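FORM 12-B: Structure-to-Sequence Request
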């Protein structure tokens, strides 16, 4: 939540435009306000306001900021509504120190009272504003800039990725990290950068240094030094991570929205993820085979990927896997985490604070535990707190609604499941090969679907009642698809939906059904199909408007439906576990076009941010 960026250079370049481009790339992290600061002739120049980046730029012209140093911020409000005063950068009383921050300073109320009693005055309701005032206080006490930042941070509890500049020292930016993501990179001898995420730096460098908790860096033009805050500011050496994402992958490339582009990138993301190293998959498989207890944890879309994945893995592993939403992990397992436990943690960003907290807590209370992470972001927090990680190959996902990362997460779990099937000899080699062949054919199935169905899905959306609520119903593994497909519609089109078990819906939700109530049934030809037929009839008998997702040669449920969306997937048993991947693009598109139909921006859903770094 919130994106920060910083640049310091000795080149003749327009830092305002560069910072603007960077926060546009970070806008998915928060988009209710934004701002920038530069230092010109030892004065801070600040431009900031509430609203979307482009609207603010039109008013304030960020490209008028000159000089050799700038910090920028795009905000997702936590403390204080999105107003100009609450927008970052925040400054101290002298107006010489400016800070941009991602995270939450939890003890800010107490610190603010202390600072007010010392004569400081505040302009915003934010937690962040205490930081420049604390630095000001430490400078007054005689510390130099670097020491003052460290002394200020010692007083702060909570999470931060922050970037600080000081008008009296215009040759450096100080950045520090605790629990919120922060990367730095440079063009040697020329320009240095910091940012919350890779897409903002990709066009300048592919070698990024990922700051760890309690690390600080001093950025000078084309030069970076790293320090360990907890070890008397000892200088440290860090190795850069090479990022091989395409620059184009972080651009819209002619698509109207990132969400649509990223849905279209699914076949490619899946093909790349199919190439995950066999050793990594086998390592995960063996850990699961040896475990006595297995939990899978995540949030939102990643949690629904867990639901699908646990279903597939259980079939071949023969052990129960308990899924627990990360925010409830500690509550549910306090006193119950036993030895020889494996936890699979899934997070596309690798930074979701509740997921990180769940695994960190688990490691603290039970030493005999293995954490296996699946994430899309190399070097993200989840990889640091896990014993082993698989990095999905979705490339940068900018749309706030997760789409291509979801399919790659489910695919990774399916690969682990098939590996387990092979290791445990649960399938004859010929059979196993057929499952693998089915898995490998998925990118093409999605490609064909996307090629032939855009218009029909647009039309379905146009004919749906604008203000309707929806049920997304399914049985078995497809409950994950129902929940994830429903979440997409909820997120981007602001429709109320209930993603539910079709069987269980009889125990309450069915009472809402009236003539014309739209119900989307996910109906692949698996073991649940026949019983689902009965459920479709029950809802149809009560006037439900039935929209079904079926395979090409479906006859029964499609006959009973008012609208049918057909997925070009063979109806053999070898696809039975993979429908969460092949069926989801249809629902993602439905949500996308529903958002457009409601004049909503699908890339920037109301009140959401892509990475949730607050509890
Ligand atoms: C997905 O569309 C949502 N934006 C959200 O539910 C998301 O999946 C959730 O916050 C988890 O994020 P993560 O995968 O980065 O941990």
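FORM 12-B RESPONSE
SEQUENCE OUT:
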């Amino acid at each position: 939540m919130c994106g920060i960026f910083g640049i310091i250079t000795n080149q003749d370049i327009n830092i305002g435009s560069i910072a603007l481009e960077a926060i546009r790339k970070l806008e998915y992290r928060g988009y209710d306000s934004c701002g920038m600061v530069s230092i010109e002739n030892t004065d801070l120049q600040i431009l900031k306001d509430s609203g979307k980046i482009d609207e603010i730029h039109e008013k304030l012209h960020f490209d008028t900021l000159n000089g050799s140093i700038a910090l920028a911020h795009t905000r997702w409000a936590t403390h204080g509504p999105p107003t100009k005063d609450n927008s970052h950068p925040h400054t101290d009383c002298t107006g010489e120190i400016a800070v941009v921050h991602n995270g939450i300073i939890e003890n800010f109320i107490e610190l603010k009272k202390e600072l007010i009693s010392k004569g400081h005055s505040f302009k915003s309701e934010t937690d962040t504003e205490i930081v420049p005032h604390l630095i000001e206080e430490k400078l007054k006490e005689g510390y130099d800039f670097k020491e003052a930042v460290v002394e200020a941070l010692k007083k702060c509890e909570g999470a931060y990725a922050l970037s600080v500049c000081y008008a009296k020292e215009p040759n450096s930016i100080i950045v520090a990290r605790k629990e919120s993501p922060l990367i730095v990179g440079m063009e040697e001898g020329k320009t240095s950068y910091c940012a919350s995420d890779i897409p903002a730096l990709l066009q300048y460098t592919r070698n990024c240094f990922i700051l760890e908790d309690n690390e600080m860096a001093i950025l000078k033009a084309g030069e970076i030094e790293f320090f360990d805050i907890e070890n008397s500011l000892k200088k440290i050496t860090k190795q850069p991570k090479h990022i091989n994402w395409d620059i184009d992958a972080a651009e819209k490339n002619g698509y109207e929205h990132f969400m649509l582009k990223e849905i279209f990138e699914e076949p490619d993301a899946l093909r790349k993820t199919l190439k995950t190293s066999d050793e990594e998959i086998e390592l995960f498989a063996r850990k699961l085979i040896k475990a006595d207890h297995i939990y899978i944890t995540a949030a939102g879309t990643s949690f629904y990927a867990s639901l699908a994945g646990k279903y597939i893995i259980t079939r071949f592993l023969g052990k129960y896997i308990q899924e627990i939403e990360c925010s409830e992990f500690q509550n549910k397992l306090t006193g119950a985490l036993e030895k020889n436990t494996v936890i699979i943690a899934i997070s596309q960003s690798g930074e979701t604070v509740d997921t990180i907290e769940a695994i960190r807590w688990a490691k603290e209370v039970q030493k005999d535990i293995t954490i296996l992470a699946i994430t899309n972001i190399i070097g993200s927090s989840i990889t640091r707190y896990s014993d082993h990680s698989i990095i999905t190959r979705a490339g940068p996902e900018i749309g706030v609604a997760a789409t291509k990362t979801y399919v790659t997460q489910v695919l990774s779990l399916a690969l682990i499941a098939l590996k387990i099937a092979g290791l445990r000899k649960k399938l004859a080699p010929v059979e196993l090969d057929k499952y693998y062949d089915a898995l490998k054919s998925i990118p093409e199935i999605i490609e064909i679907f996307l090629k032939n169905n855009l218009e029909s899905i647009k039309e379905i959306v146009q004919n749906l009642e604008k203000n309707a609520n929806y049920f997304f119903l399914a049985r078995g593994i497809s409950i994950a698809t129902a929940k994830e497909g429903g979440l997409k519609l909820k997120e981007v089109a602001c429709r109320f939906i209930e993603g539910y078990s079709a069987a269980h819906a009889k125990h309450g939700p069915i009472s809402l059904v009236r003539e014309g109530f739209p119900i989307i049934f996910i109906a692949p030809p698996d073991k649940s199909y026949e019983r689902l037929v009965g459920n479709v009839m029950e809802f149809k008998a009560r006037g439900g408007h039935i929209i079904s997702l079926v395979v090409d040669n479906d006859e029964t449920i499609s006959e009973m439906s008012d609208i049918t969306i057909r997925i070009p997937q063979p109806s053999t048993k070898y696809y039975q576990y993979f429908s969460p991947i092949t069926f989801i693009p249809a629902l993602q598109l439905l949500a996308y076009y529903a958002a457009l139909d409601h004049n909503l921006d699908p890339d920037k859903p109301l009140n959401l941010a892509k990475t949730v770094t607050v509890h």
